[in-house]
């Protein structure tokens, strides 16, 4: 079983310096523990097994497991120390070993989680000289992508991706063991991801350039991304072009896939400035889902606000030198501005509802506007 997170952003918790999001509910854990108890009882039959919990992590699992085990059993613990912080450590120490005679017994080791499998080396070493009848390994959580050993894992509760988790006995530097659910680490909580908005002529490009340098962000202009993919004939570019050639709109998913590729290319970025996307609330939702899949989120929509008459003046001015025909006609300009407000009203509502909409006065010198935008970013 592979469980994907359905994180409710509001339930994010902080332990020491790290953030964690809800990952596996108490009910799901309870089901997995019940399943393991039934499965193991069926295999063992009428023999009285000895369940060996591995301390500290498996105290909660062991306790719940033996309560569900339908037949008589014995319970004991061994104590190993293995984890420092959030990296599986090379050095597994045995603090308390086997304290009773296990000769001829059926032993089932109960692990809370198997990650790299290094702990399994030590567990097998411990049982090497015990003349047990059989040794089985049961683990509540298992990270298949991280596992580097060949030991057979006889019983696995829930397979999870290779990401650090806490709760239900598992800790991050001592904290989190008492939580009845499991939380997963949120890696990129600190990212500053912005959606930059503004009517034509508001100075979006200019501001994006400043912000990019000042905050070390990656500027993703959807127009540039499209042109890049089409020019380089990437699979996505060709796909997009096939729609454009027919005069159809490029489906959101194609655009999102292109943006995803850009985000992946810059995985170490401190954040992204999205420019030209989203345009609809469906796209805004798709962008949220994309950010969420990267353990991140859009922090703010920053909209440059400029009075229509000023925009018209600026664009007419630009038209004189740029030669862009759509910058030369006042009616066309006014129409573009009107269209912008009609289209973006929905997005303003979308982000306002999440308290993420920030209108910034876009009239003044470039420096003045940069100061205003920066103060919004600094307050995030
Ligand atoms: P392994 O030896 O790498 O398989 O790691 C097993 C031990 O590392 C477990 O018994 C835990 O103590 C610890 N561990 C591994 N992954 C996690 C995790 O995601 N959260 C908390 N502890 C973990
Ligand atoms: Mg453990």
Give an overview of the whole structure.
The protein is α/β, with parallel strands linked by helices. The protein is 40% helix and 24% strand. β1 and β2 form a beta hairpin. The protein starts with 12 loop residues before the first strand and ends with a helix. Bound molecules: inosinic acid and magnesium ion. Residues 54, 57-58, 112 line the site of magnesium ion.
Quick structural gist:
The chain is α/β, with parallel strands linked by helices and 380 residues long. Helix content is 40%, strand content 24%. The chain is built from 11 helices and 15 strands.
Average pLDDT confidence is: 90
Question: Which strands sit side by side, in order, in the main sheet?
Answer: 5-4-3-6-7-8
Number of helices: 11
Tell me the series of helices and strands, N- to C-terminal: EEHEHEEEHEEEEEHEHHHEHEHHEH
Termini gap = 38 Å
Oligomer status: single chain
Quickly name the level 1 CATH class of the largest domain. Alpha Beta
Per the CATH scheme, the topology name of the largest domain is Rossmann fold
Bound molecules: inosinic acid, magnesium ion
Strand content: 15-25%
> Structurally, how many domains make up the residues?
2
- CATH-defined superfamily of the largest domain: P-loop containing nucleotide triphosphate hydrolases
> Which residue ranges are poorly predicted, with pLDDT under 50 across at least 5 consecutive positions?
1-10
Largest sheet: 6 strands, mixed
Report the structural category: alpha/beta
Which shape, going by the Cα principal axes? elongated
Tell me the total number of β-strands. 15
What would CATH call the architecture of the largest domain? 3-Layer(aba) Sandwich
CA-based gyration radius: 28 Å
